[in-house]
Amino acid sequence: MVTEKLTPISYLRGPEGAKGVKGDTGTFAGANAVSVAAEQPAEVFLTGPETAKVANFRIPRGLPGTNALANDSAFATYIAALDSETRAALEGGFTPKGVFYVNVADVGAPMNGVDDDAAPINAAINAWSGSFGVLKLTAPPGSTIRSSGIVVSKKSVIVDFSGSHVVRTAAQPIFTGEGEWGPNISVGGVTTNSLNSVLTVADASGFAVGNMVKVFSDNVISDARDEGTGSVGRQGEFAVITAISGNTVTVVAPLLDTYDLNVRVAKFIPHHIEFHFGTADFDAASGGGAGGTFSGRVMFRLRSLPFPAVTGDILRAPGPAVYLESTYGARVDVSGANLPETDGYVVGSYSSVASDLRINANRCRHSYTDGVYPLATGETSDPGRYGRSMFDRITGASMATTQASWDTHHGGYGHLFYDISATGAGASGAPLFSLRGRSHTIANPFANGAQVGFRIHDEGVGTWATSEGHRIIGATTRNVRQPIQIALSQIMDVRRGFTVSIDGGDFDATGAACMDIANGRVLLNGCPTFRYTGLTVPSTSNLINVGNGEVRGSARIVARSITSGTLTEIISFGTLSSGFQTVDLDLDLVLSDWALLNTTCVIRWATARGEVRAKVNDATTMLPQAGNTQRAPLQVATLRALRTNDAASSSAFRALTVTAGANLTHWSGDPVILYRVRATSAATAGEVYAGAFAGQQMVIYCHTGSPAAVTIPHGASFGTDLGGANVTLSPGQSMRLMWDGTSGIWARVA
């Protein structure tokens, strides 16, 4: 049943216009007239040269009278005018303009919890012409609606079952909403600048300024995954027309990709479709759990639509809950639980753009994921199958996902996760946040209880091995084994910026290095804090592990709880035969007494180059390791807040377990070098390496934890002048040396 409410409109008459002022004398050449608001005075004025005057009339709007408009024309003029009382009366007195209500109980939907309700609901939808306004379907509160597949195609319909329980009963989504495209128009060329893109089209007659369009081509999305069969994501982007001149069409925003292979453009036909429900489930006994491929087990599907919406609580699903395909500005506010391990994600965004997603998830595979459609060249002319997922805004919370809670894929670009949390991922090493693609931002996230907090990775070697330009802002992790993991298959070109920028945050690591980097470039902004809370040193024997890449910025590393293991260094760079390793860091280290006594050095350089400025426990400083130094002039440790208490039991500095003949190696340009030695049995060291400048000092300290004494040899061949004899240091004893640059000897001064 379709109902309308009308507001009576009284017969209105505009005011009489005042007599115009006599204009200048001249030759009359023509006249123009414009309609003005009824309360404006009538006016006549002349323009033009003396020999060709034009009379200009401003005429107040009204029904038959001064301006003698026909009733129909007068009403149309009033309604179209933004400033008219008639328009205001119409808008204030009608039911929302163009919305027509149908209660599905009135069209034969049984809603008895047994029979299918989709057929009569679809009949009502199909009977709606869709030529004007929006059809709004409602249901009695508390009703159960069993759906073998409600479908809205190419018309504007709002389904409001927000007080009802809906059930999937067949191998079809509970609801499918589909839009449409205008004809595909060939594009001869595309030029893009920082402000817009300009298309040269075969025919611009079907377009108008303000149209939303999709530009698409057979060009491969460079960072999309190749499925190995010639099928891969193909380029496509939404844009809005801002100008048309002949067959030249200007669109914004500027296109992200380069288009030059079978380029086409199609207009988005503006249909408005929404589906709102209270709760949703599926009935496996009636076939609601079937569907073949993952897309066949979807609960709610929206395709090729501008600004669609889905809201409600999904109690169970046989596959993906909400599936967005080539939508723009979709609004989704759902909770989803009890989804399958294989493909149970709450919201999937495929080639969709600018979605606004509010997701709460529990016991599923992914809370959110994105993707592109793999296509062979020329496989389809459907614009909806082209393009990457871009600029989605996601907030919400997830619990107990079996894979990455919040998951981005190859080809994705510019998603924003904000005020979002994730608790509990699978024990297989799945991260809570998975970043692939480009330029994603995670702002103020909370990650709790998982093997990995944030994983930045790609999907293999090739043009689609891309994961870069990400930001993690103000993150917090708790009970996470490894907060940050960067695992790229190949090193990123330095000209393309950083893999990820970590801006502030507080990261707990319970059993692995706080950050593990393989082929990544990391920028640490705002001094993020990394807390290692385990009792035993990670298996990597360090707290930040760099296989290949670059680390710049500042960080605070806290490890107060370590009491056992082998802590070789705080930061470790592996030795590379190719690639690059660069470090430029300010470190504030807070270490337990055990870590102070047992850490060899701040950083193992290997083939890295750069500078580290380290401060330990606000007073004690540590040296880099020199044993693997290959580019000594390019490796500098500037040590601050130097403690000169020789016998300080908590001192941490360059350490060496002395065996017979072991050299005391080092590289530091600091005024004072602190060197800790220890021995498992009495031993005499070898050569003490040369100092950096005249007057540089070295303190050699045999710490109290050493099982045996260490002897430092005297003589030029050992680089020392110890007053004529070797010096044996028992645990707790120390001596001070100074570098004599003229003779090239460390001379004892105390």
Please write out the topology.
Blueprint: E1 28-36, E2 43-47, E3 53-60, H1 71-80, H2 85-93, E4 99-103, H3 118-127, E5 134-138, E6 144-147, E7 150-153, E8 157-168, E9 175-178, E10 180-181, E11 185-192, E12 197-201, E13 212-220, E14 232-245, E15 248-252, E16 264-269, E17 273-282, E18 300-303, E19 309-314, E20 322-325, E21 331-337, E22 345-350, E23 356-364, E24 366-371, E25 374-375, E26 393-401, E27 406-407, E28 416-423, E29 431-435, E30 437-438, E31 441-443, E32 446-457, E33 467-468, E34 470-473, E35 476-487, E36 500-503, E37 506-509, E38 515-525, E39 529-532, E40 544-559, E41 569-573, E42 581-591, H4 593-598, E43 601-604, E44 609-616, E45 635-639, E46 654-657, E47 672-678, E48 683-684, E49 697-702, E50 710-712, E51 720-721, E52 727-729, E53 734-740, E54 745-748
Parallel strand pairs: 1-3, 4-5, 5-8, 6-8, 7-9, 8-17, 9-18, 17-19, 18-20, 19-21, 20-22, 21-23, 22-24, 23-26, 24-27, 26-28, 27-29, 28-31, 28-32, 29-32, 30-33, 31-34, 32-35, 34-36, 35-37, 35-38, 36-38, 37-39, 38-40, 39-40, 40-41, 40-42, 41-43, 42-44, 44-45, 46-47, 47-49, 48-50, 51-54
Antiparallel strand pairs: 2-3, 10-16, 11-12, 11-16, 12-15, 13-14, 13-16, 14-15, 14-25, 49-53, 50-52, 53-54
Helix pairs in contact: 1-2
